[in-house]
Protein: RidA family protein
Organism: Maribacter confluentis
Amino acid sequence: MKQIINTKNAPAPIGPYNQAVLANNTLYISGQIPLNPVTGELVTGDIKKETEQSMENLKAILTEAGMTFEHVVKSSIFLSDMNQFSAVNEVYGSYFNAETAPARETVEVANLPKFVNVEISMIAIK
């Protein structure tokens, strides 16, 4: 069974997709960029703040699905510049317990939606 998860506490989709899909007990969260859902403005100029906004968007979606970061089993981080990895990793890591952190990959890409510097997607299981 497939359930669509959407919340006003995270940015609305800008294309033919949903914020997340819950299939059985697995939540697939679409990539989140540093878009403030209240103002509709991008958070830019500081990779740590950009990462924090992306993580807060993910947190809002997890909350809507009745989950927390402890339920996350896999993350994918997309960066426009791998030189920003350590700053992104610092913020990202603050949302997890190191002993139970999910599997993850981080890749550098040529461009991201709206030409942001970071996008993060997740898979979580209840």
About this structure: The first strand starts at residue 2 and ends at 5. The CA atoms of residues 11 and 40 lie 7 Å apart. The domain at 2-125 is CATH 3.30.1330.40 (60s Ribosomal Protein L30; Chain: A;).
